[in-house]
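Here comes a specimen:
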Amino acid sequence: MNVGCLNEQPSKEASIVLSLWFSLSGLAAVTGNAVVLWLFYKNETLRTISNRFLASLSVADLLVGLVIDPLWIAFRCLIQPSNVTQTTLDKFMDMLWIHTTAATTLNLCCVSVDRFIAIRFPFRYLDILTKRICRSLIVMVWFTSLLLPFPVIFVNVEKLWLFISLVTFFIPATVLAVCYIWIFKAASNQARRITGENVEGADERQSTSPSRTIQNYKAIKTIGLVLGVFVVSWMPCLTLSIVHEFIAKDPCIDKKLYNVVWPWIEAVALSSSAINPWIYYFRNSDFREALHRGIRRVR
């Protein structure tokens, strides 16, 4: 076996491009999510249960831009450790990756479930999702995301990829898809009731139906964007994990995937932290109005 192949690293040009990518993505993630958290802190009217889940997601995305992206530039693009015995650094990077992925995707699950409950059970929403339950779910998400990487210390990460993929991709993707389908069905049923309602008292019901239908379709667009960004961002990670687990049995190919291909996959996935604020917050009229008020105060 050619031992040199185990030390293969991205080219100088690729490292420069990756460094710029991580830098711009990290700057956008820090800026966007810092603004969102500032608005959440300054405006009491924004501290709803739904926005608490969004704030938790924003903290996860902020940490990506503030901590993870700079570390990735340092380790993946600048240092490029070539010694195959440097398992400690590899484990550290793997643990960061698992924590980052879990924190982001599990928070996305909470946001999607929150929207599903709000649309599916509008009159029972505050009974189902109390502040106490909201806090408990957020604590559970962060506890899980912090706990999940620790087995890597004792077990080779290659043996955990399927389990990690299940927790960080398959389950969140399933939750997002189910929420999208249910919200779409709710909006479709609502629209049919509005257009086909001819029984007595229809006018009274129609007085509130249009606003709820608009709300449902807005939720559809949001969840649809979330699902699309999620798949585009995280599907390459899953694909490479499957290739690594079942196809790439040659040590040289396996190491090339990890050292050369994987940094690009990470760049795509981490970019979602810069995109999320635009999906969740800056499309929200309440956040836009709060931002305009905040800018006027600064002036």
About this structure: Confidence is low (pLDDT under 50) at residues 198-208. DSSP finds twelve helices and no strands in the chain. The two ends are 65 Å apart (CA to CA).
